[in-house]
Structure formats: structure tokens, C-alpha cells
Amino acid sequence: MPELHRCYRGSRCTHHETDPDYPTIKRGAPINAAEGLCDACTRHLRQAIVDMPRDYLDLETTIAGTRDGLRQLVAGTPELPVPISLTIASVQAELLHEAQCWAESTAEVLGVWWDTQKTQRSRPGVVLERAKHVLTGGLSAFLALRNVVHTGWVFDCWTTLDRDGLDGALVLLDLHYRARALTGQRRLVNHLPVPCPNCDHMALIREDGDETIECRACAQRYTQDEYERSCTLLARVERAA
Ligand SMILES: [Zn+2]
Ligand SMILES: [Zn+2]
């Protein structure tokens, strides 16, 4: 029997499975390549990269909101919720740093232009837009990176890290979820009453102000047109049944 390869996200894989021999252990979905992400996790990663500039802005808005909250609190309470704004600022800094690290390494492999000096002087929004283009355009090159050396913070120590593109994928996915967790409550989420046409889970949502509909189970995205078409199809199938 050929060796079974699994999604690099392991227990956090979108389609993780329970180990048949150890029911408490979750393993990544089976994949064909020796190393990599499953299709669903790859779609989640692409979305996390596309959302980087927006995540950064949402965090900015959340910090501003915390400051307003602080001003109102100052009069009455001696204990101020300062740590929350520090947490948000550190996620912002990490997002900007990691996006630059991985975009620079990917740009190098692809032979596209990435000016580190200029980037350091640019506004975060501009840097993240450019990183988004490099990383989505060269997604497979990004995932195929091996033994790239970056500097970064590990437990409050500035240190040198030797990492693979797949580690970068996990870092960017994790930052996306942390950003969402910190800002998520700010956006109204509408749950849609039909199953996802791709994976059949009742997990379709539309965030306030968004034009697209997203499945939280498989990360498939739909335009309004596609969504309406699938609803019409669903209604026909139910009538026929
Ligand atoms: Zn996966
Ligand atoms: Zn789905």
C-alpha cells in the first residue's frame, strides 16, 4: 500500500480526519503530494492572503475603537483595558512583518521585483497590497519554498528562523484567524439558510458590506449571481423530490 500523505495543517485542517487507531488524534486530509495543503486549506490560505490589507485596516479601526472606549472609561475606572490594544498592535506588526518576509522570498524565486529598502519606507497598506499580489500570483512557489532564513520574534526574542513555505502558510492562516478573532465582532455576519453547493454544509455567510458569500466550511466563495442560481436549482430539486 502506498504511503498516505496528509495536509500540512494537521489537526487544524479544514477536512481533518480522526485517526482510526487513536480516536483522540486528528490528522490532516489525505493529499496526493508528499508535502502540501489540501484543496480546502489552500483556498483558505489564498483568502487569508487576499484579506491581509483589510485585516490590517480592521485592526486599525479596532484600536481606534479601544482608544475611544478608554477615553470614556478614564473618568470612572482605575483599571484600563490597555492589553487589548497592545495585542492588536502586535498582531498588526506581525502581519506586516510576515507578509514582507514571505513576499520577499517568493519574489526572489519568481524573479520579480521586490525592493526591501523602498518597502520599509512605504505605508503598511501599500506593502500589504504588493505582498498580496506576489503571494497570490506565486502561491505554488510560496508553498514550495524550502529553508528560507528570516528574522522574527520568538517569545520576545529577536532571532533568526529557518523555515519552509508551508510554515509560512500556517503563520499567515493563524494571523488571519487572530485578526478575525480580534475584529470579528465588529462586522455583522449574515448566515444564509441554504447548504453550500460545494460541500453541503450549512455554513454560508455574508459579512456586512461584502459582495461575496463565503462558506466557512470549505472556503468556497460565491458571487450573488452564483448564489441565486444555486438557490433556484435547489428549489427545483426539492419540488421534483
Ligand atoms: Zn487541509
Ligand atoms: Zn462549502
Give an account of the 3D structure.
- With 241 residues, this protein is an alpha+beta fold.
- It has three domains: 5-37, no CATH class; 44-186, no CATH class; 189-240, no CATH class.
- The chain is built from eight helices and ten strands.
- The chain has helices spanning 39-50, 52-74, 82-110, 116-121, 124-137, 139-143, 165-183, 224-240, and strands at residues 5-6, 17-18, 26-27, 30-31, 148-154, 157-163, 189-191, 204-207, 213-215, 221-222.
- The protein has a four-stranded antiparallel beta sheet with strand order 7-8-9-10. Strands 1-4 form a two-stranded antiparallel sheet.
- A hairpin with a 5-residue loop joins β8 and β9.
- α1 crosses α7, α2 packs parallel to α7 and α3 crosses α5 (124-137).
- The chain is globular.
- The mean pLDDT is 85.
- Residues 7, 9, 13-15, 28-29, 37-38, 40-41 line the site of one zinc ion (ZN).
Provide keyphrases for this structure.
241 residues, alpha+beta, two-stranded antiparallel sheet, 8 helices, 10 strands, globular, binds zinc ion
Could you write a compact summary of the structure shown?
With 241 residues, the chain is α+β, with helices and mostly antiparallel strands. The chain has helices at 39-50, 52-74, 82-110, 116-121, 124-137, 139-143, 165-183, 224-240; strands at residues 5-6, 17-18, 26-27, 30-31, 148-154, 157-163, 189-191, 204-207, 213-215, 221-222.
